[in-house]
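Reference record
================
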Amino acid sequence: MDIIKRLGLLGLLVAISQVVIAKNNTKIVVVYSVTSFSKQASKAFRKATGIKVHVLGRSGSGATLARITGERRSPKADVWVGGSLGAHAQAAFSGLTEPYRPNNFDELDPEFRDPLGNNRVTGLYTGVLGFIVNYDVLKAKQLSAPNSWQSLLENRYHGLIGMKSPLVSGTAYTTLATLVQMMGEDAAFSYLKSLYHNLAGYTHSHTRLTSLGKLGITITFLHEAVEEKYKFPEKILTQSYQKKVLAMK
């Protein structure tokens, strides 16, 4: 269970391919990314090296892993930024990524330096897993906000909850791992089966849909709520979570 216990680790790995050489001999680094961090890092990298960086669009950890796996004989990217440890661990164990030791490795908290023991994962940032609420949506239905994971199962929230599929989303897979640790495996899967009846389906961009009032509740990392709060300041988003969560670095 060591891997599952640390599923919340978000890492930076260097993929198997090397720096791409364009037709005009210009060096370009191609990045698969699930986080906006790559934009700032790309600017700093180009300033320091003069090498251009092309960032491919955001996608879930599972989808990115599937893409890298499919490209293993002809890699299209150099770096994979962000995503859950579960996906990165699978990539490492499958030989899809190479060891990488950042210059500031010794400055990292020892717990996050090299969780797999092979320098294929480096901690990048931490996140808190929970759920966010659009008060306007719930108020229109004369509903109060949920205050625990268990309350999400109440019939009154039927069709109002958004969540991604654990098959393609690192966040959703981390949710599954968190529930297993909180409740035990059998109870966690029973919980998810009950929760499914309240979902509006496995949604994409569910945090944005909650901000826009298309959903009332979304299960996600709470830093996404902060991003949406800046984009939609008129919307009131509350952050509700229990203390025992698994969204660690």
Observations:
- Confidence is low (pLDDT under 50) at residues 1-25, 232-249.
- The chain has two domains: 2-125, 129-240.
- Residues 212 and 232 are 8 Å apart (CA to CA).
- The domain at 2-125 is CATH 3.40.190.10 (D-Maltodextrin-Binding Protein; domain 2).
